[in-house]
Recover the amino acids of this structure.
């Protein structure tokens, strides 16, 4: 079995033993390009957010009402860092803190309407940026990419354990 490289039609790996490693390097480069495209789209949003701020908003979108500890774990940061991050998001009107209705000492974190609007804006900008790049590809290349991504996700799901409560990382 030979693997087609991402840098041009007809380029192939030397054989099955080094195919996965070679393609992994090429995909790493593609992921970096996609990350740059994503970041540019985020920076063009009306309200500029840092990567940690955007990650926090997205985490709270998938787990509304989470407490600070859950958010810190999801972001893989310490409690003081998560608290300062929430302070900034709250000051910007993107997040609100409320007391838990049953656990009086626990504070719930939720996105405000403005926070949800910012996430919608960022997602739409990212979708449009990606669509513009995909629009430059041949339809057969787009279809092949789509098939490859579906296969990658299926393989990843088989290899990586699911995290459970706060969605995938």
């Amino acid at each position: 079995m030979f693997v087609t490289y991402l840098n041009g039609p007809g380029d192939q790996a030397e054989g099955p033993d080094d195919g996965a490693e070679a393609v992994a390097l090429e995909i790493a480069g593609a992921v970096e390009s996609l990350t740059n495209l994503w970041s540019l789209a985020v920076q063009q949003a009306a309200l500029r957010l840092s990567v940690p701020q955007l990650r926090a908003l997205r985490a709270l979108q998938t787990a509304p009402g989470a407490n600070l500890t859950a958010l810190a774990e999801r972001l893989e940061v310490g409690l003081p860092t998560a608290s300062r991050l929430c302070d900034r998001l709250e000051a910007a009107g993107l997040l609100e803190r409320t007391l838990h209705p049953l656990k009086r000492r626990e504070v719930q974190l939720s996105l405000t309407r403005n926070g949800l609007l910012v996430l919608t804006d960022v997602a739409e900008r990212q979708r449009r940026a990606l669509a513009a790049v995909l629009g430059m590809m041949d339809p057969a290349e787009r279809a092949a990419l789509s098939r490859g991504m579906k296969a990658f996700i299926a393989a990843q799901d088989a290899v990586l354990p699911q995290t459970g409560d706060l969605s995938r990382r």
Remarks:
- Residues 16-43 form the longest helix (28 residues).
- Residues 1-5, 9-14, 164-169 have pLDDT under 50 and may be disordered.
